[in-house]
Amino acid sequence: MNIKDIAALxxxxxxxxxxxxxxxxxxxxxxxxxxVVQAAPILNAVPEQMHTTExxxxxxxxxxxxxxxxxxxxxxAAPSPDSKPFVAVxxxxxxxxxxxxxxxxxxxxxxxxEMDGEIAEICVGxxxxxxxxQPLFRII
Length: 140
What we know:
Strand content: 35-45%
Number of strands: 11
Structural class: mainly beta
Number of helices: 2
């Protein structure tokens, strides 16, 4: 499958208000709410123009260490709305430096770097709700 195939499948899911689209080997399972709508061989369920023998591209993990959220909450990149962010991509950080704040249950929790390195990626946006163990930063 290529990106066009995946986009076409996503559009089918959206248009039909499906809750699940599972491709397992040669079978496809489509669910709406908690009921199975269709279970059929994938070659019969997917339009002919979407058939491909190309291998699915392998996802390469990016180098570095991910700093993950210790709790569900709101990510804040700066100490206040009118302050500059704690860190930006390309900044050098040291162990103990504040990277962000996660607001969880009305408590402001500073997230500190556990290593020396450089901020390679900021994985979430300011004000975004984050989940437990969700990557926040990638440090190299």
